[in-house]
Design a protein that fits this description.
It is a single chain. The strands form 4 sheets. The protein has a 7-stranded mixed beta sheet, sandwiched between helices. A 4-stranded antiparallel beta sheet has the order 2-1-6-5, with no helix packed on it. The chain has 10 helices and 16 strands. Strand 15 and strand 16 form a beta hairpin. It has 2 domains: 142 residues, 2-Layer Sandwich (Chloramphenicol Acetyltransferase), CATH 3.30.559; 240 residues, Chloramphenicol Acetyltransferase (2-Layer Sandwich), CATH 3.30.559. The protein has 411 residues and is α+β, with helices and mostly antiparallel strands. GO terms for molecular function: acyltransferase activity, transferring groups other than amino-acyl groups.
Length: 411
Amino acid sequence: MQTILPNLKTSLSLTLQHFFPFAANLVYPPPPQVPYISYTQGDSVSFVVKVSTADFNHLVGDHARDNQELPALVPKRPSSNETNGCKQEPVMAIQVTVFPNVGFSIGVGFSHVVADGRSFGHFMKSWASIHRCEGDLACLDNYLPCFNRDLINDPVELASLFTKGAERAFQSAISPSILFNNFRVTYKIKDSQVELLKDRVKTKCMEVNGSEPIRISTFAVTCAYMWVCLLKLQQSGTHQHLSSTDSDALSYFHFAAECRDHLKLPQTYFGNCIILRLASAKKSEVLGENGILVAATAIGREIMEFQKQPFKDAQESLLKIIEIFKMGEDLVRVGSSPKFESYKTDFGWGRPRNIENPVLPSFGTCSMFVIAENREEEEGGVEFALAFASHDLDIFNTIFHQGLLKLESSK
């Protein structure tokens, strides 16, 4: 570690020259002024090093792990301060945790106000490339971030919606009911199983509708499978008090859609360029015999609508999501994307052993999972990180694995 730590700091410093908003501060002036990012020459990112005696191989595993273990590997951003009525807080902080003679982790805490998942992944891959290339900035020549806000066309004035407090309304809607479950687990759906899911959806669609489904993507069918599994968990004895008895009650699936292509922006555009989408289906149908078809069709239809008219009903969707949180309706959320190819972040030692979102909250009848490409490259497919209360672990394990076994046995 005597050379690794200095090299990580040096390469980080070089990377921040190009990704300077991560070294900046978020400034919240008094209303009606809007928040902004303030960068001054010399601003920096907090970089701390800690040593851990925890079991490294346990932490990077797929099995059930204590949900409080991973947050210890991520730094808290330095406290905010207030000057002349303006609150300021750093955008990013980084912590390297050393597990002696075994390995180390890089934990990053940052504000999503500044960058979405693609921009953050761009930053991490750039840092990794500069480290791997021993500080040679030429490795980023065709991969530099784009900050040109003049490229943005905001046809439905989403910016004004957020600056008028929609983000704060969203946070206040979810914060009072946030729960952090005891255990986190990683589940995988291999390429071969993804193909079986796609075949199942095609077959069922022909049987039920007499036609091919609108859209069958890996994202749609695997998220549909998780949606079904999580609703089945909610129907179990431990959650029945939360479940609606109305057969027409809707269940919602919430995901973020990438807008760079639709706005004709470069993939290296830095900032937030996503829109929130909301699929829905009758809960009774998602739980029924053709549940995966129903869920996949709902997600696929929402993706198709987004591709045709990406900003149609954008404001209404955001306000609807806030209302769902406030009303405690059934909602499944997915974070991240396999398209980020996070496991290709190579600092020079090959693929990371594990990449995790340290916070996996739940909100009563809302469930959340994070999706990524499968870290086992030869298996392909995707992996999901979820958190559960201890009494739900075995139930969900059974639902998830029995569903895949049934799928494989029927091929």
